Amino acid sequence: MNQDQAHIGTKAVWAGEKNHRAFNASQVPVVVSCAYTYDDIDQWYDVALEKQPGHIYGRNTNPTVEAFEQKCAELEGAEQATSFATGMAAISNIFYTFLRPGDRVVSIKDSYGGTNKMFTEFLPNIDVECVTCETEDYDEIEAEIAKGCKLLYLESPTNPTVKILDIERLARAAKAVGALVVVDNTLATPINQAPLTLGADLVLHSATKFLGGHADALGGVVCGSSELVKQVYHYREITGATLQPWDAYLLLRGMKTLELRVTRQQTSAMQIATYLQGCDLIEAVNYPGLPTHRHHDVAVKQMKGFGGVLSFALKGGMDAVRIMLPQLQYANRAANLGAVETTYGPARTTSHVECTAEERAALGIPDGLVRLSVGIEDVDDLIADLDQALAYLRAKL
Ligand SMILES: *Cc1c(COP(=O)(O)O)cnc(C)c1O
To answer: Among 247, 234, 197, 195, which residue's Cα sits nearest to residue 87?
Structure first.
């Protein structure tokens, strides 16, 4: 059987594993060696020159890390992948690999908080001009692309506003001016969205989130053609934001259940979004699966499922959030997402903690916006939990 033809849930279990086993163990080993030893000096040299497979030094490559990279590449349908200590390392390393003084980047206002900081602080420091457009304003985005740019950076769905961008349409505009198209696929996961088939050149993840799925390992990954990924790898191998073997193992193990988890999480997210929409204490619910979502049609076109993340704004803003959130029983009130546990976090303490109140306001993120990353618990318990917390809030108003 040709494993390339396997369904994605099967690939999540098997991809990248077989070439990286040892001692007949059925699981990929955690190789913690910093360096690799060679009695044959010529062989050592051949490995160093990549004429033979093998490893030299842990900042460059590692067998456990390589298994993780291969699994990611296969899930994204990419030729190659390279990994990083965190998602932000993946993002910043892409920028520093391809951008030079005088270059121009076009992106959106709703990108991840850390990414937005790259646009407002670090890239301008090296004379890279960064234009962040209104996220759903295609006229503005396409006009800025048409002025010429080196790189178009997209995120869909966005975190935490869960807006949807038409990746295919914008990638086409970027190709017309010869720009590199980079997509952060963290919220969608490879289960739901394949940006490379929509015209992206590179797709990246904060593996810390859904890929790992258990909130116990940080990591990042970039997938794409060998030609591009090799360049990003080269920047990383020298500058050193390397994924650690133990984290690579935890991510690998987490990924085996990726499809199971995401399928469950998005079925529950849809039910919870519908429940919240019917609640009088809620001002707005953002979830691309809702027919009322502004770009539900685009989500239907480019995604297989709508993901496990939604956000909602409580009437009464941050004061109401302070009353309601502590009442929840099945909830981590925490900065991460994509875990097996249901996780709640106001944008101002999570995705956009790096931003000032003014910056968040400029990004259109209300102070009382709460991100809800739905876990794998039974959805009836999650809805009952929300119900009692909202009843408590109602009694306090
Ligand atoms: C968390 C996150 C990142 C950053 O990843 P880290 O692993 O925390 O560095 C980037 N993009 C999105 C969409 C995220 O949710």
So the answer is: 247
DSSP-derived 3-state class of residue 7: coil
- Average pLDDT for residues 273-279, to the nearest whole number? 97
Beta carbons within 8 Å of 193's beta carbon, 6+ residues apart: 156, 167, 185, 302, 303, 304
Q: Which two tokens stand for residue 333?
A: 């009130």
**What predicted TM-score, i.e. pTM, was given to this entire model?**
0.96
Model confidence at 356: pLDDT above 80: no
Over its C-alpha atoms, the chain yields an Rg (Å, rounded) of: 21
**Out of 209, 236, 261, 371, which one is annotated catalytic?**
209
Q: How far apart are the first and last CA of the chain?
A: 62
Strand order in the sheet with 332-333: 282-286, 309-314, 369-373, 343-346, 332-333
SS3 318: helix
Q: Give CA–CA dist 241/259, Å, rounded.
A: 28
How far is ligand 1, taken at its centre, from the CA of residue 38, in Å?
Answer: 38
Indicate the top mutation candidate among 186, 222, 350, 351 to test ligand 1's pocket, ranked by most ligand atoms within 8 A of CB.
Answer: 186
